[in-house]
Design brief:
Layout lengths: L6 E2 H15 L3 E5 L12 E2 L9 E2 L3 E4 L6 E6 L13 E5 L11 E4 L3 E3 L5 E3 L7 E2 L10 E3 L7 H10 L3 E5 L3 E7 L3 E2 L9 E2 L2 H11 L3 E9 L3 H14 L2 E5 L10 H8 L2 E5 L1 E4 L5 E6 L5 E7 L3 H19 L9 E4 L10 E8 L5 E4 L9 H4 L3 E5 L10 E6 L8
Parallel strand pairs: 1-20, 6-7, 14-17, 14-18, 15-16, 18-22, 20-24, 23-25
Antiparallel strand pairs: 2-13, 3-12, 4-11, 5-7, 5-8, 9-10, 19-21, 21-22, 23-27, 24-25, 24-26, 26-27
């Protein structure tokens, strides 16, 4: 495989997203309790008018006609009241209770009085204290479109409508293959060998981007046969196989030859971004005829994470039926150099307001200390640099599972 011209960073993100969106289509039905974090595959429609019946917004009295009124009983939430019999009648009513037929007004308990004879008097407020059927939504009305991220509020709306389950896009399954005979999986580095940091961390990034990690394999031996066997095994179960290392064309870099053997076609083959060079995204046809993907992440840890945010995150957004999130603009807290004809992704930490991003230290492509202290990347486009105070795009790292 010969070297190719690197793809512009923004174009690479768009190509990865389009590749995922083109094959999104597997849906599944999940219980409301399991729907948080998923994506609606169908519009959420009202199964009934909301409210479904006239509902009291107050504790007080439902009255008919002019007062004073004689109480005929009480209606609580969950009950079905009898109609008010005639003018001059009322019932005590609780918040959330169904307003009885025939009621002409509701009077708050604090605005009412009861005589020695047991008659109720009072004045209704100018704005009616009940909710009418369909006030929030009408039967069949689209409340949320397909593609909406499901969060606790969406689950609450669905429950209010009467849903027990939601149809959502299936979560992509992702496998990780760690390449490199020089890697240790335990203990401290030394004697020419380094500790693998990608096997432990990449599944967490994948999970935060909406994939279901299904396992880590490796270190895989530095032979073409071992690479092919590991990739084929991963593709049997996963929609996406991520590999670490081997994205160059050196004597022990077998990823490109393995992709050729598998008949893969490149969605993106190298991206003009620093750090992170080189990375790739390829596509193969699975046993079921559906495309599956292989993402080649560089072996250097920070470069691997940049490959994840550049290619894997947009791909997964497309596969999940999500829109590609736009990049917010922030103010550069310090100067950020350019990288010539390459986009520079500079690790940066946000201030408490979230409006200023300042580059962090320890940002070599093989380093992770800077990554652990950053909230994301300041984006400096090719042929430019950023001075302190300039507005720059900001690519945030994914939030933790407990955040939004």
């Amino acid at each position: 495989m010969t070297e190719t011209t690197p793809v512009d960073w923004e174009q690479a993100r768009a190509l990865a997203y389009a590749a995922g969106a083109a094959v999104a289509g597997r849906t599944e039905t999940v219980a409301l309790a399991d729907a948080d974090g998923r994506t609606l595959a169908e519009p959420l429609r009202a199964l009934t008018d909301l409210p479904a019946f006239p509902t009291s917004s107050i504790d007080g009295w439902a009255v008919r006609g002019a007062g004073p009124w004689r109480p005929e009983g009480r209606v609580l939430a969950g009950g079905t009241p009898q109609p008010l019999s005639a003018d001059g009648a009322c019932v005590e009513i609780a918040t959330g209770a169904m307003v009885p037929a025939g009621a002409t007004a509701l009077i708050r308990v604090e605005d009412s009085a009861t005589s020695d004879e047991g008659l109720v008097s009072g004045e209704p407020r100018p704005i009616p204290d009940w909710r009418l059927p369909g006030e929030e939504a009408h039967l069949g009305e689209e409340l949320l479109p397909a593609g909406t991220p499901v969060d606790p509020a969406v689950i609450g709306v669905a429950a209010t409508c009467g849903y027990a389950e939601l149809t959502v896009w299936a979560e992509p399954r992702a496998a990780l293959l760690v390449f490199g005979d020089e890697l240790l999986t335990e203990g401290t580095p030394g004697a020419g060998r380094v500790r693998d940091s990608l096997g432990p961390q990449v599944p967490g990034w994948l999970r935060r981007y909406g994939a279901t990690p299904i396992g880590v394999t490796g270190p895989v031996k530095d032979t073409l046969a071992a690479h092919l066997d590991a990739i084929r095994t991963g593709l049997e179960e996963a929609d996406l196989v991520c590999t670490t290392g081997g994205t160059m064309h050196g004597p022990v870099d077998h990823l490109h030859p393995a992709l050729a053997e598998l008949g893969a076609d490149y969605v993106v083959n190298t991206v003009a971004v620093r750090p992170g060079f080189p990375m790739l995204l390829a596509r193969v046809t699975g046993a079921d005829g559906r495309p599956k993907f292989i993402a080649g992440l560089p072996g250097n840890p920070q470069s691997a994470v940049i490959a994840l945010v550049t290619l894997v995150a947009p791909l997964l957004a497309g596969l999940r039926g999500r829109p590609m999130p736009p990049l917010p603009s922030v103010e550069a807290g310090a100067a950020v150099p350019g990288r010539g004809n390459f986009t520079h992704l500079a690790l940066a930490a946000l201030d408490p307001t979230g409006r200023t991003a300042t580059p962090v230290g320890h940002v070599g492509s093989a380093m992770l200390r800077g990554l652990a202290n950053a909230h994301g990347f300041a984006v400096v486009r090719p042929g430019t640099k950023a001075d302190a105070g300039d507005l720059v795009p900001f690519l945030p790292l994914p939030l933790t599972p407990g955040e939004r």
